[in-house]
Amino acid sequence: MEGRTNGEEPKSWEDLYNINLIPSEIFLKFRRELQGIRVGVNLELCNAPLNDYHAKLVLKPVAPERMWKVILEPLQQDVQLVSKKIPVTKYLNLQVGVGHSFLHHAIGWKWKLSTCFGGDGISRIRNKTSLRLCPGVDFRFGWRADYVLPEITGGLGTDEPLFNMDSGRLQASLDRIEAIFTHGAET
């Protein structure tokens, strides 16, 4: 029996993987604790798909059982009260929020179900990795990897080839870099 190919040219290694190390979001975060409340100033620079800039003032309790945070966006004239991510299952989180836009004179609410797994027909891992440079200076890297695992198939006496291998694919990217500066951080 002669194995038949499926008509596709073999893919080069460059077609099978793509790693993008240019982040689409860069955040500078300045934090300070005042009487049990963490006050943060976030400067967010987003370069993909549009060049955009956001400045936010974030207030949230320092206590580990905190359930909320307040986000003020003076340039967009928005204020939001957002819950922390609430675990629904081991891998699924729910977050809810209510906000007011002074610019549009509107009140609204939003919700988000999120997980670090999943994608559109492709397996995806999203994660954040933290690196402490020194007390009071932390870097956080948001990355993702979309992948299709390799697959080996075959058949004998059918229209399938005797041996066929799909090498899989990997697309990884560094989506976000955060530099976090905490005033009065513990040593």
SSE blueprint and pairings:
Layout: H1 13-16, E1 17-20, E2 25-34, E3 37-46, E4 52-61, E5 68-73, E6 78-83, E7 86-87, E8 93-101, E9 106-114, E10 123-134, E11 137-148, E12 151-153, E13 164-166, E14 169-183
Parallel strand pairs: 1-14, 2-14
Antiparallel strand pairs: 2-3, 3-4, 4-5, 5-6, 6-8, 7-8, 8-9, 10-11, 11-14, 12-13
Description:
The chain has one helix spanning 13-16, and strands at residues 17-20, 25-34, 37-46, 52-61, 68-73, 78-83, 86-87, 93-101, 106-114, 123-134, 137-148, 151-153, 164-166, 169-183. With 187 residues, the chain is an all-beta fold. A hairpin with a 5-residue loop joins β7 and β8 (93-101). The radius of gyration is 23 Å and the shape is elongated. The N and C termini lie far apart (70 Å). The relative contact order is 0.21. The model is unreliable at 1-5 (pLDDT under 50). Residues 11-183 form the DUF7781 domain.
